[in-house]
Write a structure and sequence with these properties.
Two copies of one chain form a homodimer. Chain A has ten helices and 14 strands. Chain A is of the alpha+beta class. In chain A, helix 2 (50-72) runs antiparallel to helix 3 (77-90), helix 3 packs antiparallel against helix 4 and helix 9 crosses helix 10.
């Protein structure tokens, strides 16, 4: 083999192995389990510092431990999902809750959704500006209203009526996110162009899927949406079937990525539908949807998911996805890049 | 057989035949076709007058003719869907556009969505108050933005920027709808209770699915939502996969009914997913989703749909659904009740 051919083979080998590793499938142990993500995108080692890596992993671990502890206490997967998402919403690291990106007009507009796989009930909020933990609001819509999706000031009125305290919009101000907005707005690019650039401030949605001691699955997702978004744009995070889905009979899924592709492809539900109708495994279904369908269309992003046996899939078609899982006491595993 | 047994058999026969008739499946002729609905619910002959029936059917026929003419002229199914929905949006008879119901606070907030089955692109608006034809706004989002769903004043800003004229909110005032709101608000019932009552002013969403000369399928849905709705509630109509879905490889679907059940079940996409993954027919898939799944959960409503061969299904689990189809020149067929 010539030197050139050998080099090409080597490159191909690494390319293919990196593709394989970007679908991390953990066999289920049939016990309580939790899997989380903190967004997918062009997350490269070259743009990271060891300190930054550590800071991200710390929050992921904390969220896993809080969620796992909830499950260990015999509480429901819905409660575990909410408790773990709150940890990430309260951290300024992720694009959800406190760390939400800014809209084009300098506001923060947050979306979240939750679904319970035991009875397929669901709740979501979109475009809220004064709710500290949107995932709690989504859960409130699910459990205290006859609705699935409440939006804007209407959603805020609903949670207020149900005795949730609102925060000042200034709660969501972080210098880092504001600087990101200023940087985007300085560039002479249209929104369309921005969409095609994989900057780290674009993604960062958080999501959790959990399996509790009763075998019930729940999934939830929370986001600040797209940085510099305009026109009341709503992405996949608050859309049941696109960003979030849960059904005990198949799986729970939380998605993250270029929302519009996830909406048009019903990514979260499609994985469940493939398991149900084609009778394939979670890993196969996630691979089909994320690594084939979405990739073909140019829809960057990923999902975390688990089924009733605790089989876990963390599958993404981008260079990185903040992610982790925990299905044994004191053993949270967290990852950032494709190959670790 | 005793007299009693005979009577019971007779009743069972009529019950079962009425159930069969509520799934109207028309074999495809492989040519241009259009199918529409104007909402499903407790539409009973006893509450109707011949004049009212005639008035509803007149608009349905007009919408079918306009849509069919668009297809006949060789234009796309997307254009046919838009043209037919505009006819129904401009009529005060249906709960969409001009005839939209009022929210709890006396405003009109409209939702619409459209999807093109040739490339799975989609657009939607939710909670808009000043757009005369929300289906045109949904199409504009699809064709002129990088987004799928724009909401509220943001969506209005987007269409304005793209040179669509806005109307005064008072355009949507109709005495009939306002009286309905007053009647609902007089009653000492919570929103939860209202949801469980099948009043004719609850439903009335409109939707169209069309197949054009190129074999492309498109689907669209438009609604004023639930009468007396609060908290920025958004139903299934603007949600891709719930109220609207189209894919040339399977089918196009527009749904109408108790939105929350349609969202949790991803009704429109689920029918397509069953055809794709279980390899069953459109009629079988529609029956499975609307007459079994939804019915079991108590989710009242229906769908109109067609596949690439022009096979049409109009399936609903309520006493009536305003509906019709046209797949031959000068022959629009319209229906209201289960048994006609």
């Amino acid at each position: 083999m010539s030197k050139l051919n050998f080099s090409i083979s080597l490159i191909l080998f690494f390319l293919s192995s990196s593709l394989i590793v970007s679908a991390q499938n953990i066999p289920g142990n049939g016990r309580i389990s939790i899997v989380i993500h903190g967004g997918a995108g062009t997350i490269l080692r070259t743009n990271m510092t060891p300190e930054k890596e550590k800071a991200y992993k710390k929050v992921l671990e904390q969220a896993l431990r809080v969620g796992y502890k909830t499950l260990e206490a015999g509480k429901s997967s819905e409660e575990a999902v909410v408790s773990a998402i709150i940890v990430m919403e309260n951290s300024p690291m992720f694009n959800a809750g406190k760390g939400a990106v800014f809209t084009n007009s300098g506001t923060n507009e947050l979306d979240a959704s939750i679904m319970n796989g035991s009875d397929n009930t669901a709740g979501a909020v979109a475009g809220v500006k004064r709710i500290k933990n949107p995932i709690l609001a989504a859960q409130m819509v699910k459990n205290k209203s006859a609705h699935v999706l409440l939006t804007g000031t209407g959603a805020e009125g609903f949670v207020l009526k149900n005795k949730m305290k609102l925060v000042e919009p200034s709660y969501f101000y972080t210098e880092r996110r504001y600087r990101q907005l200023m940087n985007i707005q300085k560039k002479p690019t249209g929104q369309g162009k921005l969409l095609n650039k994989n900057n780290d401030y674009k993604f960062g949605t958080v999501g959790v899927v959990a399996l509790d001691v009763n075998g019930d699955i729940a999934a939830g997702t929370s986001t600040g949406g797209m940085s510099n978004k305009r026109f009341g744009r709503v992405g996949d995070a608050p859309i049941i079937g696109a960003g979030t889905y849960a059904d005990n009979m198949t799986c729970g899924v939380s998605a993250t990525g270029h929302g519009e592709f996830f909406m048009r492809n019903l990514v979260a539900y499609d994985i469940a539908a493939m398991m149900k109708y084609k009778e394939i495994s979670l890993a196969e279904a996630a691979d089909e949807v994320v690594m084939k369908k979405l990739k073909r269309m140019g829809g960057g992003g990923g999902i975390v998911s688990l089924d009733a046996k605790g089989n876990i899939s963390m599958t993404f078609n981008t260079p990185g996805m903040y992610r982790g899982y925990m299905n044994e006491k004191d053993e949270p595993y967290t990852f950032i890049y494709q190959v670790e």
